[in-house]
Each structure stands twice: as structure tokens, then as C-alpha cells.
Design goal:
3 helices, mainly alpha
Length: 73
Amino acid sequence: MALKVIAHWLLMRGNKPCILPALGLISANTAKWGNPLGLRKSDCAAWADGLDLPNRGETILYTGCEYQIDLTP
């Protein structure tokens, strides 16, 4: 729902067509992979390896996998 609202706002801003290409990519990645970055669930969950956490639970804060990944070389 939020993506549709944002898309509508971007399209109607100033009565001129304005399409943000990244919005389509974010939407497609979320639909296919479950996160806006298009990462595998195993990559998003790798930070918890060895912590003996349950596999399922309530979602308290959804970060879209952006804070779980380590991009340092």
C-alpha cells in the first residue's frame, strides 16, 4: 500500500509525469525476494549465525535487510 501511495505521489507531482525507476526495482525485489535489496534470505540472516535464535517470531521492526548485511571488504 505504501509503495502505491508513493508511486501515485511521484506520478502526480506538479501535474507532470515523474517516474522513479528505482521504485519498480524495489517493488520487484520485495515481491521476489522479500526485501528491497533483492538479497537471499540466507544472506540477510547470516548475522545471526551461531546465536541460537528462533527461526520465526513476531516482526518488531522491518529494516528490509539493510542493517543486517555487512558490506565491508
